[in-house]
């Protein structure tokens, strides 16, 4: 029995009738009539014998066992009306459906043939008939694809979405998956809507669509519904989806949503990697790098990274660069390291950009180019890479590859510091401490020093200790100072070792312990710290915490002195003057006194003044002596102030000037110098350079006498009537040369 299909298309009127695929000629007058009138012969001149007769007239009735099935495409009420009129010769609804199915399949087959033959327009038309006229979901999906890609029809993303939705609503899994992607990735003009995306992905996933299963897993993982994510990853992985296998491997590696099982993770990574999935190859490389689930094997890691990197995996390219830079699993090759960093950097990988910047800064594998270093640091820094932000700040601070700009240095240091970069936190603390690029603020300096110090940055620990030691930005707290000095000292920061030595020597924050002091001074001194070298020499000179040894003291004083430490230069001069630990040499003594004096050491300025006055190690020169005494006196050295007063009183190297003499005696006397106090008393008693004032004279004599000055005691007795007259006192006051010699030699 052959089946002949009669297809009727109706909108608000009869559009067409096809019988066995052939179009029936229908008079216009019939097309606008009611359904009932289709079945009746037309009156008048209209050539229409009724639908039944017209069907038979098309010649199919001669076929043996031919039966007709009717397919009505139109409103349901019209369909029911139509089927009522054909009931007498129709094969029934079941047959209609079978016929419809057969017709749709014919259209789909023809469309696919035309597609393969390159006849895209015809294929589209056939898909459209099946999609529009028969509502077939597969055809609707194909129509959507044609609109999406502009195949056989003008590209129209809006129409594509309409047809994907029609197919999806009829349960087409592929369309559901594509529609989920539209909402997830904001494609085809669709606004992002994760809820809609998850709805369509999950609908397709429930039908076994592997891509949808993977994407459903991804969406649940993003929501931290890890157990649900694992469920869908597993389904997709069982269908050999490499992306799902890799993601499921990550879950087993970390224990997210499933019991942690590193061996299972490796198994899944391998399955995905064998399929050439770059992310899995990279993850497998990580496992070999760190010994996760497998024995650590840097050569295997390198191989895995290589495979992934050659496929363009940005992280693998970065990791491969690290392997070449460090020689992990491959011969060290800085040029290749830079090459792979560049590939990754050009894809926007922030750490690779930073590392490439380092290559350019130091000429590692590339020609050194500070401007390019800054360029790559900036790219990385603008993505938020803290190390690059710190490096860029450093470039601005020191003008490397960019115009020096301390304010910008602070800006980038702050960005990095706020992201937790310890070096930047220390650098920002330094900027606040010294007022570089920002207003000086010791409280802020302490804040950032502390953050860096707590991350074990040794120099920050030292500076934080120094702040506690001197009370910069915090209350003085020697115990805290010692705590932080010790941490830094144990990391071999020479400055901290020296300061810790000071704490033990002086008993600041700890019990005085010369042995500990000498130990830390020695550590710092061996690193070249000039202050520690001087103090270690001092320990040898006086046997503090170590056996007294003047020759070793001289040796350490010399090391420090040769590095410009003024105190050590003076100490070495004293050793040469007196022959302590070295052969006595007045010329060497004068040489080192002068170096210390030129460095601003007030005591040494006084000492070299004495050398010029006495002619020790240098040619005697009162003018130069006066010059150096003045420098020392102006820095507050009481001895130099008193001697300069004597020079003015007696005209040694300067024009005699009693007023100047009185001025300098007063400065020395105010500092408690007993001889100056006595001499100032003489000046007031006799009116030398000051208005005569016996009461003032008595006050200064008493101050000097309280310190044991015998001349002052005699003056007091005399003024009270029990001693020599004032003329004698005056004579004593003016007897300068002998007195000065005694002072300078004493």
Automatic annotation (TrEMBL):
The chain crosses the membrane at residues 723-744. Keywords: Membrane, Transmembrane, Transmembrane helix. Gene3D superfamilies: Tetratricopeptide repeat domain (1.25.40.10). The keyword Transmembrane applies. PANTHER family: ACTIVATOR OF C KINASE PROTEIN 1-RELATED, CHITIN SYNTHASE REGULATORY FACTOR 2-RELATED. This is Sel1 repeat family protein. It comes from Faecalibacterium prausnitzii.
């Amino acid at each position: 029995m052959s089946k002949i299909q009669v297809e009727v298309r109706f909108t608000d009127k009869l559009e067409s009738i096809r019988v066995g695929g052939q179009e029936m000629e229908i008079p216009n007058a019939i097309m606008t009539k009611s359904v009932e009138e289709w079945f009746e012969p037309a009156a008048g001149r209209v050539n229409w014998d009724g639908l039944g007769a017209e069907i038979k007239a098309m010649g199919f009735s001669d076929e043996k066992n031919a039966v007709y099935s009717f397919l009505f495409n139109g409103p349901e009420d019209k369909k029911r009306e139509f089927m009522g009129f054909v009931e007498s010769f129709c094969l029934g609804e079941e047959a209609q459906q079978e016929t419809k199915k057969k017709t749709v399949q014919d259209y789909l087959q023809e469309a696919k043939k035309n597609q393969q033959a390159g006849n895209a327009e015809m294929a589209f038309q056939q898909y459209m008939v099946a999609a529009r006229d028969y509502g077939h979901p597969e055809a609707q999906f194909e129509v959507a694809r044609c609109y999406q890609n502009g195949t056989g029809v003008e590209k129209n993303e809006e129409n594509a979405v309409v047809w994907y939705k029609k197919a999806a609503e009829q349960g087409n899994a592929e369309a559901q998956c594509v529609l989920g992607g539209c909402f997830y990735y904001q494609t085809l003009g669709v606004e992002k809507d994760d809820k809609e995306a998850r709805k369509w992905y999950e609908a397709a996933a429930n039908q076994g669509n592997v891509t949808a299963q993977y994407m459903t897993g991804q969406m649940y993982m993003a929501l931290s519904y890890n157990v649900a994510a694992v469920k869908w990853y597993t389904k997709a992985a069982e269908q050999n989806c490499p992306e799902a296998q890799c993601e499921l491997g990550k879950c087993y590696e970390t224990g997210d949503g499933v019991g942690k099982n590193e061996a299972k993770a490796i198994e899944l990574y391998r399955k995905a990697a064998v399929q050439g999935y770059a992310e899995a190859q990279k993850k497998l490389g990580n496992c070999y790098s760190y010994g996760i689930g497998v024995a650590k094997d840097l050569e295997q890691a390198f191989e895995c990274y290589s495979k992934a990197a050659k496929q363009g995996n940005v992280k693998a390219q970065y990791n491969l660069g690290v392997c070449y830079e460090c020689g992990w699993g491959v011969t060290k090759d800085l040029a290749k390291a830079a090459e792979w960093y560049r590939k990754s950097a050009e894809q926007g990988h922030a750490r690779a950009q930073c590392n490439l910047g380092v290559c350019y800064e130091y000429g590692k594998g590339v020609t050194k180019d500070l401007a390019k270093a800054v360029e790559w640091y900036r790219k990385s820094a603008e993505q938020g890479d803290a190390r690059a932000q710190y490096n860029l700040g450093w470039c601005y601070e020191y003008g490397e590859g960019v115009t020096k700009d301390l304010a910008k240095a602070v800006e980038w240091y702050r960005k990095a510091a706020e992201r937790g970069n310890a070096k930047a936190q220390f650098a920002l603390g330094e900027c606040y401490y010294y007022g570089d690029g920002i207003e000086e603020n010791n409280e802020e300096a302490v804040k950032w020093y502390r953050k860096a110090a707590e991350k074990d940055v040794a120099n920050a620990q030292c500076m934080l200790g120094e702040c506690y030691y001197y009370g910069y930005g915090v209350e003085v707290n020697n115990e805290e100072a010692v705590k932080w000095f010790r941490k830094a000292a144990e990391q071999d920061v020479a400055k901290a070792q020296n300061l810790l030595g000071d704490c033990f020597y002086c008993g600041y924050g700890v019990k005085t312990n010369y042995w500990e002091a000498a130990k830390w001074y020695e550590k710092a001194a061996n690193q070249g710290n000039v202050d520690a070298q001087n103090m270690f020499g001092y320990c040898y000179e006086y046997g503090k915490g170590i056996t007294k040894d003047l020759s070793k003291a001289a040796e350490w004083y010399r090391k420090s002195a040769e590095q410009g430490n003024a105190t050590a230069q003076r100490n070495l001069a004293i050793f040469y003057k007196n022959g302590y630990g070295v052969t006595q040499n007045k010329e060497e003594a004068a040489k080192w006194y002068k170096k210390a004096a030129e460095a601003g050491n007030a005591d040494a300025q006084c000492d070299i003044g004495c050398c010029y006055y006495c002619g020790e190690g240098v040619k005697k020169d009162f003018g130069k002596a006066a010059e150096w005494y003045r420098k020392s006196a102006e820095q507050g050295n009481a001895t130099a102030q008193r001697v300069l007063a004597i020079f003015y009183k007696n005209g040694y190297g300067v024009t005699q000037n009693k007023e100047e003499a009185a001025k300098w005696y007063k400065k020395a006397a105010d500092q408690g110098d007993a001889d100056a106090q006595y001499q100032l008393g003489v000046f007031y008693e006799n009116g030398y350079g000051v208005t005569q004032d016996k009461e003032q004279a008595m006050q200064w004599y008493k101050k000097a006498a309280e310190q044991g000055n015998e001349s002052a005691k005699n003056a007091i007795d005399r003024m009270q009537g029990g001693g020599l007259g004032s003329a004698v006192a005056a004579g004593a006051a003016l007897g300068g040369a002998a007195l000065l010699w005694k002072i300078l030699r004493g």
